Amino acid sequence: MSRPTLRTELCDRIGIEYPIISAGMGPVAGTGEPVATAELAAAVSNAGGLGMIGGVSYSPDQLRAEIHKVRSLTDRPFGVDLLLAPSFLIPIGKKERAAAAKMKPPSLPSGHIETMQKIAEELDIEWHSAPPDTTEMGSWVPEGKSWAGSQIEVLLEEEVPVFASGLGSPEPFAKTLKAHGVTILALVGNVRAAEQVRSGGADYVVAQGTEAGGHTGRIGTLALLPQVMEAVDPTPVIAAGGVSSGRALAGILATGAVAGWCGSVFLVADEANQPELQKERILSAAAEDTVVTRLYSGKTMRNIRNPLIEAWERHGLDALPMGQQAELIKDISHSIRVAGREELLMNAAGQTAGMLKQRRPAGQIVAEMAQEAAEILAHDLGTRIQAST
Ligand SMILES: Cc1cc2nc3c(=O)[nH]c(=O)nc-3n(C[C@H](O)[C@H](O)[C@H](O)COP(=O)(O)O)c2cc1C
User: Fold this and answer.
1) pTM (2 decimals)?
2) From CA 238, how far away is CA 240, in angstroms rounded?
């Protein structure tokens, strides 16, 4: 079968065949490692898309090793996704480290802890306190540097062609990245953030609708896309949230988007670094089976529904700020693991989970999406759809 043609200006600029980007998905519960490692990124790039590494949790050394691994698996372009949250931009010096070492963990409100214990009882889970952390998250950040800054240095040294900011404006690094020829993408969930990242130097704005898996906003993809396009014109826009099929890809390209940034569809790819149970739960989910909750991180995150989320929502507590909510959830997550009830752990996925029914190699996913989108755009226009101006 001949390869379909499906190109946009993004393909020409980055040097890829199809306007399909695999999202830079970070760690999920139980692995500590990203879903989007070198294997997934390379498989997508080899198939003609743009593969992204979900780099947020990697130390500079780990990130460098992962980049080398992608290069050993493909000679095509790829990218790295990082988070530029304000706390990831603060340089950490000796003084700050000493102060942090002395600081007690934030004391959690007793009402929240009691509610968690009650929920455990309701779910028939024996309560166990989590063992103290031996490794501090981000303890690898080099003296005097920031979390994100030390990762960006690796991107520059390794001449990574594409960088995506999953959260926050690229502004602090945009000038240097551009001077090194790096193409900058930035994810947003509303128009205000789109304007911010555009003026912060993003070459492409990725508009992510609420359908998306993982952290997500409140506006649907089709409602968000034209508003973001208008706000950032002439900066090109990439669509995220719900793009898991050739049909959806054709749809967003028809709106004027230059590519699809796709997460959920690759969650069940053979190369996705996801626990088997989590892949199974996505494959058996219906479209209604995802729900947005602050339970796991303190921020709104779309997950496969489970009884723990339902109990948390029923109790009606306000989530704590991001770091504290993560602290709050540690004991119950540990208790869940001890009880062997892993189906209650975080299992981020988007609304398209309802249409993901089979495991496939990532390369096949890219090929099938490109084929279906090209068929729709090439044949339906002029036959099923008549249009002229
Ligand atoms: C398990 C999971 C982890 C994610 N981690 C990240 C991340 O680390 N950085 C990021 O920019 N986006 C992350 N996302 C969001 C994706 O980049 C993407 O925007 C989203 O999956 C697109 O919507 P879709 O799931 O409907 O395809 C994650 C999504 C999922 C499902």
Assistant:
1) 0.96
2) 7
Ligand 1 in reach of 211 Cβ (< 6 A): yes
Q: Which long-range contacts (CB under 8 A, 24 or more apart) does 151-159 make?
A: 151/55, 151/58, 151/60, 151/63, 151/80, 151/82, 152/82, 152/176, 152/177, 153/60, 154/60, 154/63, 154/64, 154/67, 155/63, 155/80, 155/182, 156/180, 156/182, 157/64, 158/64, 158/67, 158/68
- Ligand 1 centroid distance, CA of 62 (Å): 20
Residues of the chain with pLDDT under 50: none
For residue 75, give both structure tokens: 């000679």
Q: Cα separations (Å) of 12 from 41, 62, 258, 377? A: 19, 30, 11, 19
Distance between CA atoms of residues 387 and 389, nearest Å: 7
DSSP letter at 256 equals: T
Lookup: tokens for 245: 């099929």
Q: What CA–CA distance (Å, rounded) separates 313 from 301?
A: 13
> What are the pLDDT digits (tens) for 197-243?
999 999 999 999 999 999 999 999 999 999 999 999 999 999 999 99
Q: How far apart are CA 342 and CA 320, in angstroms?
A: 23
User: Do strands 51-54 and 162-167 pair parallel, antiparallel, or not at all (unpaired)?
Assistant: unpaired
List strand residue ranges (DSSP E) for 20-77, in order: 20-22, 51-54
Residue 37 CB less than 6 A away from ligand 1: no
- In which order are the strands placed within the sheet that holds 301-304? 214-215, 301-304, 290-293
**For ligand 1, what atom is nearest to the CA of residue 349?**
31
Tokens (6 digits) for 370? 């490109």
| β-bridge pairing 78-83 and 51-54 | parallel
In tens, the pLDDT along 316-340 reads 999 998 888 988 999 999 999 999 9
The torsion region of residue 298 among left (phi > 0), alpha (psi -120 to 50) and beta comes to left
Q: Are 224 and 256 in contact (CB under 8 A)?
A: no
Of all protein residues, the one whose alpha carbon is nearest to atom 27 of ligand 1 is: 263
User: Residue 92: its pLDDT value, please?
Assistant: 79
Q: What is the pLDDT of residue 101?
A: 58
Q: Identify the structural domains of the chain with CATH numbers, from first to last.
A: 9-90+146-274+359-380 (3.20.20.70)
Ligand 1 centre from 215 Cα, in Å? 7
